[in-house]
Amino acid sequence: MKKLIIDIMASIKDLNPKEVWKYFHDITQIPHPSKNEKKLVEYIVKFGNEHNLETIVDRAGNVIIRKPATPGMENRKGVILQTHLDMVPQKNSDKVHDFLKDPIETIVDGEWVRANGTTLGSDNGIGVAAVLAILASKSLAHGPLEALFTVDEETGMTGANGLEPGLLKGEILLNLDSEIEGEFCVGCAGGVNVNAKKNYNEEKSPSGMVAYKVMVKGLKGGHSGVDIALGRANSIKLLFRFLMQAEADFNIRIAMAEGGDLRNAIPREAWAIVLVPELKKYEFEAFVRNYESVYRAEFAETEPDLSFNCENVAVPERVISKDEQYKIIRAVYVCPNGVIRMSQSMKGLVETSNNLAIVRCKEGKFEAYNLTRSSVDTAKESTAWRVAAAFQLIDASVVLEGSYPGWKPNMKSPILKTMVNLYKSKFNEEPEVKAIHAGLECGIIGGVYPGLDMISLGPTIKFPHSPDEKVHIPSVQKFFDFLCETLREIPAK
After folding, report:
1. How far is CA 128 from CA 43, 71, 253, 322, in A?
2. Looking at 86, 123, 258, 303, which residue is catalytic?
3. I need a surface site. Which of 81, 105, 138, 249 has the fewest CB within 10 A?
4. Is the peptide bond before 124 cis (omega within 30 degrees of 0)?
5. CA 203, CA 206: separation in Å to the nearest integer?
6. Where are the domains of the chain?
7. pTM for the model
C-alpha cells in the first residue's frame, strides 16, 4: 500500500503544467488545515527569499510577495494574485489521518486528482501552486505583480479581515479560488456565524431500558454555500427528525447526540445514544429500518449511499432530563436549514441560506453552530436572527459573530471586459460571468481596498470540503494558460 501511494504521489508531479503540479505536490506534503498554516507560511516565505523576491508577513499572518515587471512591461497596471493557504480538514470516519501531522495522499483517477479518504486541498492549493509557478517563472511576460496568500479563509476569513490598508499597491485583483473553469465570478455572498450554547440537567438512566447508537452515514456533504441548492441531506436534520418521532412513539431517552464537524461543510454524519424500553426493542429496530427506507426514497437522487441504522451499546449512566430533551429536539428540528430564498436579480443564484453545521449534546452541554449566508446584508441579518430565535426559545445563549460582507457585481469592470474578450479569442467559446453563493475574500479585501477591479477564476473542482473532493486535470492546464495570457494582456496604467 505504501508503495502505491509513493508511486501516485510521484505521478502528480508529472502532470501538466508540471510547474503547477510540482508546487501542488509540495503543498500536499505540508499539513495546513485552517488555523494551522504555520508550516505552509514558512514554506512560502522560504520560497520568496530563495527567489530574491520582496516577501512580507503581515500582522494577520498573511504573506505578500512582490515580483517586478518584466522588461518593457513596467507601465502595466499592477496585478494582485490572491489565494488562501488553509484547507478544510474532512475525512471519512474509517480513515486514519491526522491533518496536523500527515501529508495528503493523492490519487490520479483518470482525468481527476483526488485524495485517499480525505479532502484534497485543491481548494485553494491549486491556486497557491499556480501563483508560485508564476512567481518562479523566468520566461512569463507580466507587469508588476503582488501575490497575496491569506490565512484562515475557511473558518473565519481572519486573514482577509486582518488585512491592513496601504500594504497592497496593485489596481487589479485576480482571486484564484473559483471552482469551475470557464466561469468568471464577479460577486459573492456575505456570511455570519450563529452560535448557540446551553447547559442542561442530566438524570439517572431509567431502569428497564436498552441502549442503541443511532447513526446517519454515507451522505455527500459538500460546501455549505456552493452546494446548498443541490438538495443534499443534512445528517443533523435527519437524525433529529427521527428523534422527534421516536420520542413520541417510543418514549426514548437521549444520553448524547452529535453531528457535523465544520461550519462551512454540509454535515455528512450524525449519531445519538438513545435508551428504549426493553419491551419495545425489536419494534424500535424495525422503526429504524423503516426510517432508512423513507430517507433513501426521499433522497434517492442526491444521496444514493445514505445509511441510517442502529447498533446495541452499553446503557449509559445518565440521560438528558426529560423536559430539556423535549426542548432541544424541537429547537434543532425547527432550526432553518438549506435555501431560504433565491435571488431575484440573477437567475439560479441562491440569495440566502443557512447551514446547521454542528450540533453537540453531551455531558450537560448543548452546542449548535450555524453559518448564515446572503448576498443581501439585511436578509443575512434577518435570517441569522431567525436561526437565533429557534435556540433562544429554549433559553440558549446565542451569539452572532464573524460577519463579513458580500461582493457586489460590477458588470462594467475593465478587467472583466479584457478577460471575456481574451477567453473568447483564445478558446473560441464564451465564458460564463456569474456570482456565487459562497464567501470569497474579495468582498472583505474590496472593503479595505475599495478601488480594486476584481475577478475570481479557477480550475474545475468538484465536491470541495468533502472527502470526495477532486480537481480536473485538463482544466488546471487551461486555467493556468489563460491566467498567464491574461497577465501578458493587462492594460497600461
Report:
1. 12, 25, 49, 51
2. 86
3. 138
4. yes
5. 9
6. 2-187+406-488, 192-404
7. 0.71
- In sequence order, what are the beta bridge partners of 150? 84
Confidence (pLDDT) at 157 = 87
- At the top level of CATH, which class does the domain 2-187+406-488 belong to? alpha beta
Per-residue confidence at 408, pLDDT binned at 50, 70, 90? Answer: confident
The half-sphere exposure of 150 on its side-chain side, counting CA atoms within 13 A, is 29
The tens digit of pLDDT for each residue in 156-205 reads 789 999 999 999 999 999 999 999 999 999 988 999 999 999 999 999 99
Q: Provide CB contacts within 8 A for 374, sequence distance 6+.
A: 189, 190, 191, 340, 351, 352, 353, 380, 383, 406
Q: Where are the alpha helices (DSSP H) in 363-458?
A: 377-392, 414-427, 442-448
2-187+406-488 shares its CATH topology with 192-404: no
Q: In the annotation, is 102 catalytic? A: no
CA distances from 78 to 3, 286, 491 (A): 46, 66, 10
- Judge: domain 192-404, CATH 3.40.462.20: no
Handedness of CA 312, 313, 314, 317 (dihedral sign): negative
Asked if 371 and 263 count as a contact pair (C-beta separation under 8 A), the reply is: yes
Cβ distance 23 to 143 under 8 Å? no
| Residues listed for the chain | 493
Q: Are 466 and 5 in contact (CB under 8 A)?
A: no
Rounded Cα distance between 141 and 216, Å, is 53
pLDDT for position 47? 98
Cα(480)–Cα(131) distance, rounded to whole angstroms? Answer: 9
153 is catalytic: yes
3-state secondary structure (DSSP) of residue 471? strand
Whether 316 contacts 217, CB under 8 Å: no
